[in-house]
Amino acid sequence: MEIVLAAAIGVLTASGVWLILRPRTFQVIVGLTLLSYAVNLFIFSTGGLRIGAEPVLRAKTGSLEAYADPLPQALVLTAIVISFATTALLLVVVLVARGLTGGDHVDGREGKP
Amino acid sequence: MEAGLALAASFATLIVALLLAGAADQAGGQGLVLTYRLGDWPTNVAIVLVADRLSALMVLLAAILGLLNTASSLSRWARLGPYYTALSQFLMMGLNGAFLTGDLFNLFVFFEILLAASYGLLLHGSGDRRVAPGLHYIVINLAASLLFLVGVSLIFGVTGTLNMAALAEMVGQVPPPTRSLLHVGASILAVAFLVKAAAWPLGFWLPRAYDAAVPPASAMFAIMTKVGIYALLRLSLLVFGGEAGESAGLGREWLFFAGVATLAVGVVGMLAARDMRRIAGYSLLVSVGTLLGAISFGDTALLAGALFYMFVSTLGAAAFYQLSGLIGPEGGDAFEDPPTLEAYDPEDDGLLTEDDERAVAIPAPIGILSAGFLICTLIIAGIPPLPGFMAKFAMLGPLLQEPEGPMSGAAALLAALLVGSSLLALIAMARAGIQIWWADPGRIPPTIRLGEAAPLGALLFGLLVLTFAIEGPYSFIQRAAMQALAPSQYSSAVVEGEAGP
Fold first, then answer.
1. B342 touches A at CB < 8 Å
2. Mutate to test the interface with A, among B123, B146, B147 (most CBs of A within 10 A)
3. Closest C-alpha among B69, B74, B60, B75 to residue B91
4. Are A46 and B136 in contact (CB < 8 Å)?
């Protein structure tokens, strides 16, 4: 389980970093999205990976050991919302840039800056 | 209506910031750490807002800049597009929250609020020259935010808490195998803050991005690098201070190196820059470098000087940005009306038209502008008798007494760079002044609008008054530095959850 999650985070991060360094705005956006997926998975994993642990307290008996840590879930939810919103904002800016410059190069023009 | 509301809100923020500084300072030398638990949850689960003198000082600085920005933008710049004043207030909310929060994840949320507002302000007015730098700015900050999240979650995974005060009490007891993981988390977090603070080599985005924004917004952005500095200062003093056991003083040398390099790059950039706004941008890098170098020592007197320098140099750079807006097209900003703007404007009357410019022209524009330029130069370069010099002097004194630094010879190196950067900044700004005022005698003097010039004049006058009334503010800053370097009071106030107002 751990090795699968770690590999997923690693692959997502590697692809994201590679895409961020590309010259097209679309690639940069997809790269940022992949990176934020990787980070979200990473935050989720800090609570410890457990199979079959209950997410919500049902009975008041029993120890807390049997339950999943709720805090990373709350954190990851916030992180998802924020990165989604900022990516949407970035998309709008990219559209404006495309309208103004007529191209999708990150520097606004082709070739060397 | 909108203008009156924005002015009233900014003014109220300034008054509240002054009251907060007074409240944090009321208990004499020791000072008071005010806490407020959001939603009144019990201390161990609540998200707390904490105000000590350092936070109050930062909030006060933000409030001054916020009022300056709002007041000077209303007559012209705010009407270049919609929602300028609303975005400014959002930026203020993010800034105040970031300075006051006592929780790492909450700090992330406030960072995102202030960054989202700054994206809007940077792109305000749209046009070719804003959109490309704005795109870079947004991408860089998004990537840095992701680093921020990785750092925060590593720290959470090791310690199980995000409350900075609880973290401070826990760091000393972290067992060795996971301690290195904690260090990795803190270092990644520090990299994220260094990106926001525009330290070398992570700060190449700053001069170009700030150059693109409208002048009042650039002036407001002058404090945004200081948010990164504040976060670094808070974490390194609170969490990795003297009580952190093996982790004490984590990364001090790196902060020092980053500071010295930023200072050097900033000064070279100032010399190379061709116009006022680039000079102002690089002067922000100089100030960031000086601050990083100074806080890496962890010395009380030096920290007090650094905090005062931060206060003065931020206001000086902001004033210089404002001035570049007054001097006009010299700064590269012709009043273009980009065609794309109308598509995003819900009201037709929001846009600027020629006939409704409320231009109350002031006589002798050249005299007034060049006097402002002179004051800004003296403050940014740190030449006597203005407060810029006093701040540098307050740092040089402790540096020459050889405080215990991150390594030997560090104090002498920083002192030399401080003095050298003053000289080079003076050369750069004198050259810019010659080009603006003397090199082109046929140039038509710009019209100054009263609404834009009055707030700037008030700020410069305030800085002049500060020269004579320096004792009160400086002793407050000294007490702030003392309190920041004694973090046990902060953590006990938060962890025990003493009732605050």
1. no
2. B146
3. B69
4. no
The CA distance from A11 to the nearest CA of chain B, in Å, is 16
Contact B76, B447 (CB under 8 A): no
With an 8 Å Cβ cutoff, is B340 touching chain A? Answer: yes
For B109, the closest of A25, A78, A106 (CB atoms) is A78
Going by pLDDT thresholds of 50, 70 and 90, the confidence category of residue A40 is very high
Amino acid found at B490:
Y
Domain residue spans of chain B: 1-23+34-250, 253-331+360-468
Which tokens hold the place of B282? 């690089």
Residues B212, B218: Cα–Cα separation, whole Å: 8
Task: Tell me if A82 and B109 make a contact (CB, 8 A cut-off).
Answer: yes
- What is the rounded distance in angstroms from the CA atom of residue B39 to the CA atom of residue B35? 12
Helices B387-400 and B410-433: angle between axes, nearest 10 degrees: 160
Tally of CB atoms within 10 A around B299: 22
Contact B419, B396 (CB under 8 A): yes
Partner-chain contact A83 B139, CB within 8 Å: no
Contact A75 B105 (CB under 8 A): yes
B110: closest CA of chain A, how far (Å):
11
Spell out the long-range contacts of B248-253 with Cβ–Cβ below 8 A and sequence spacing 24 or more.
Answer: B249/B298, B249/B406, B250/B183, B250/B186, B250/B187, B251/B186, B251/B187, B251/B190, B252/B296, B252/B297, B252/B298, B252/B406, B253/B296, B253/B406, B253/B407
pLDDT attached to residue B161: 84
Nearest CB to B142 within list A32, A94, A99: A32
Give the pLDDT means over successive 10-residue stretches in chain B (501 positions): 86 89 77 79 81 90 91 79 86 93 90 91 81 88 92 89 84 84 90 90 86 87 91 88 73 87 92 86 92 86 90 91 75 42 45 48 73 87 84 86 72 88 90 80 70 84 87 86 82 67 41
SS3 content of chain B, % helix, strand, coil (to 5): 75, 5, 25
> How many other C-beta atoms are found inside a 10 Å radius of the C-beta of residue B468?
9
ipTM of the complex: 0.90
Residues of B with Cβ-Cβ distance to A79 under 8 angstroms: 149
**Distance, CA of B404 to chain centre:** 27
**What is the distance between the alpha carbons of residues B293 and B81, in angstroms, rounded to a whole number?**
40
**Contact with chain B for residue A20, Cβ under 8 A:** yes
- Whether the CB-CB separation of B380 and B426 falls below 8 Å is answered with no
Q: Residue A15 burial (CB < 10 Å; 0-12/13-18/19+)? A: middle
Tokens of B479: 């007490």
> Are A32 and B139 inside 8 Å of each other by CB?
yes
pTM: 0.88
**In the prediction, which pLDDT does B360 show?**
55
pLDDT tier at A81, thresholds 50, 70, 90:
very high
Structure confidence at residue A59 (pLDDT): 65
Q: How many Å apart are CA B62 and CA B242, to the nearest integer?
A: 29
Q: How far is B329 from chain A (nearest CA, A)?
A: 22
Considering only CB atoms, which chain A residues are within 8 Å of B145? 82-83, 86
